[in-house]
Amino acid sequence: MTWEEADVQAVRAGEPVASRLRFAAGDVCRVEATVGELVVRGEGPDLFEALASVRRHLEARSVVLACNGSRRDVFPSPMLRQASGGRFAYELEIPRSAARPKTVDIFAPAPESAVLASVDDQRAWFERWRDSGAGKG
């Protein structure tokens, strides 16, 4: 298992905080976030789920990671999860269109204009997108 790292901003109680993510894909994927003195670890069947585990622990401490994997409008399809080990996800728009959505690295920094969300809010938004159907509002 080879570890990779990414520096991203985090937001704790409304204040920006430097953070570092370490992640490794394997039979069990692992993600570790260091936010100031706080270190949180998560595991999952793919990197997206391992990141979601870390995000849930951070949410309990009022910390949000400002990476693409924390964006409300980013979620992987089952096929993309399998192909990338959960490393990449789609940037989804409502209303849904027939065009293939843009793919983003979940560990890359989120654009300043991105809406960051909790794990539950992100999943709810994905379900809303999925149920919107192509061309529906």
Describe the overall structure:
The protein has helices at residues 47-59, 78-84, 119-132; strands at 4-12, 15-24, 29-35, 38-44, 63-65, 74-75, 88-91, 102-105. With 137 residues, the chain is α+β, with helices and mostly antiparallel strands. The chain has one domain (4-132). A 5-stranded antiparallel sheet has the order 4-3-2-1-5, with helices on one face. The protein has a 3-stranded antiparallel sheet with strand order 6-7-8. The mean pLDDT is 93.
How is this structure best summarized?
The protein is α+β, with helices and mostly antiparallel strands and 137 residues long. Helices cover 25% and strands 34% of the residues.
List its salient traits.
137 residues; alpha+beta; 5-stranded antiparallel β-sheet; 3-stranded antiparallel β-sheet; 3 helices; 8 strands; globular
